[in-house]
Write a structure and sequence with these properties.
Structural class: mainly beta
Radius of gyration: 27 Å
Largest sheet: 22 strands, antiparallel, barrel
Helix content: under 10%
Distance between the termini: 33 Å
Low-confidence stretches: 1-91
Number of strands: 43
Strand content: over 45%
Shape: globular
Mean pLDDT: 85
Length: 829
Amino acid sequence: MKFNSRNPRTTARIAACTLAFCTAPFAANAQQAAEPAATPAELPPLEVTAKAAQKKAPAKKAQAKAAPKAASQAQPAEIAAPPGGRPSGVTNGASPVKDYVATSSTAGTKTDTPLKETPQSITVVGKEQMRDQGVQSIQEAFRYVPGVFADPYGPDSRGDSAIIRGIAGSYFIDGLRTTYGYSQTTAPIEPYALERAEVLRGPASMLYGQAPTGGIINGASKLPSEIPYREIGVEYGSFDFKQVKFDATGKLTEDGKWLYRIVGLGREADTQVDYVDNDRLMLAPSLTYRPTNDTSITVLGNFRKDQSGSTQQFLPALGTLTPNDFGNRVKHSTFAGEPTDHYDTDAQSVSVFVDHKFGEYLKLHHASRYAHTENDYDSTYAAILTPSRFSFINGLLGSISLPPLDTSHAPFLNQGQSEIARARTITYQETDVFNSDTNLTGKFRTGWIDHKVTGGFDYMNYSTDQMNAGTLIDNLLTETNYGPFAAQPIFDIYNPIYGRSTSLLSFSGGLIPANAIPLYARPHEEQTQTGLYIQDQLKMGPWSAVLGLRQDWLKVEQEGQPDEDDTATTGRAALMYNFDFGLTPYVSYSTSFTPQPGNPVGDNIFVPFTQTRAAKAVEGEQVEIGFKYQPNGAPFVINAAAYELTDKNQIVQPDILFQAVQGADVKVRGFEIEAIGRVTPELKVIGSYSFTDATYEKYPELYPVASGIPEFMEGKRVDGIPQHLASLWAIYSVQDGLFKGLSFGGGVRYVGEAESWGRDIATQQELHIKTPSYTLFDAMIAYETEDWRWQLTAQNLEDKFFVTSCAAYRGDCFIGQARTIITGFTYKF
């Protein structure tokens, strides 16, 4: 069933769901149970005390009395986590993050390892930080993380985007990859369903196989806890943003063998772009069975229904990056499409996690997920007519005996620099992905060396079918009636009038009625990847090392093409020294292997989409040297790293109207530093800076060899990658007195200038666009009691108009987020 902001049935369904949830027979529980639980040695019976009784006892005394004696040796952030949770030897690697500082993670090694002993740059963003910053999309969670350009294309309603160390990152959930191919093969990640989100910078293929050289983002799902906790919240904000969300977890049986969790969200919202909605229904139920303290089996479902459009309008640099010659400039709200445009997604997935401890020295972990996604995408957007595009389109018009377009006003169609051509893309795609990962971890000693060895097997099968209309050009026939296709007014971006298109020009030649567009099936594609890996974490007194090796086998099957097989060996070697005062310097070398399922490429940009082939894998390597510093017992960390990486055989698509081509090599050199944590009892801070120098070492031939046009991109900076990123975030919380429970603060984000280069095929003119730097301010204020929390957040407080990046080849730009203010109440019970 369709739902959107204009459908009152959606609001009724959300209200009914909320009412039913609120009246469920849950027992009351104190606020301190808010976080999922840490790991106990046994499964003791849990006594739930009424709120009134809890308020009589000091919280610190009650917590100290309940905590096991061994907990006194833990880091402060983990002491603060409530007791209970997963049984001994079983973990999902997603312990609560207190005061913004995570002390451990499984993401960097697939084992329970303190972050300060993991020789890789890892930043963990917990749900506390995401809540404080008002995060509503996963890419917003990484705006204060060094080395991550979190909004390279501004707000994108179609999917998640993040550039990590100059390379497009991939997304994982619970250690299994979720993003493949284009945005229209995936569903955006809902951050409310996550306990934490982790950024692993640098290659992670030795563990994950399908991992870009720059790094990955891994989300850890909210899973059942034996400590009961429930919350329900309502939010309202800019662009008629309305959202209801709830989270409930606890025991289903008194003995704690069965646990449950259910996370849900309903949203009706517009966006900063006219006629583009941002509606979502999400439900994530999970169930855990723990027959013994050593075994845990969890089943997690995730069901999504999104109705949106495309906030990406691909507007011309002239009139967007800078005003045009007449002083006109587009707005945040400028919409170049048609009101009937849509980007609708139905996604369902089921995950299974099995953990078993055979003894003190041997553990088993298994994770698998099946996901099915359907995407229905119909979008009309600005088609900036560069000289090469004019030349190509005039050739198409000439082939059907139509007069050429006047190119004297490029990239516009009129002297007033306001009328543009538009492109239309229609896609319907179904994607099925099954992936799994199973590993054993054993501990033993050889002489004076302690070993923690992890060996595993993972598997991925990706298959997709797509119906596509190709690319169609709109609003060109303006002067004469061409047979059945009447002349139509050209689209004016400053005075848009919609619904007047009658015909479109097909790239395969000829005119097509706008109301009867045929769809063509792309060849069915299937990719299968199998990987074997082994890792040894060694400890030799103050020295520690990580050695790992992996072998991958990839098979690509595309209908009508011969099968392609590929193999790769990747690895990691790292050495770290642990000083007694909390400093751990390290050096590492790692390699990557990244299959590209769902990415069709051609031998040149003019290959018809029916003749594309499946892309080959991308490979890379990195050398990194860095340090991690956490004073013993302090809830504060400082991390820094310098690195050099090379990413080989990248896919480039300089013009979205033409095919992608593979064969670019990129070298990136950089430096990152971050400081995170609580510096006083009242003050939490995050500070970061990163320098990223990403340049092309090699660039593929885009045009047929006969054109004789040489490439000149070697040595040029990679499109849209700012060299400098800096940010500072701080929150002050009142601990005592009349205003106890009040917290307030904010942040500042600086994004340095970026460049984009290209060459026009028609004129052989070099193209260069420089995107200027910008500084943005965010703010928040909240008041919290044991039962309630009210919060107000503001992003881009000054409502600054800025451009995140531009593409010289295409001549278009991406507009950043407008001022967004959201307030909400959360009731905890």
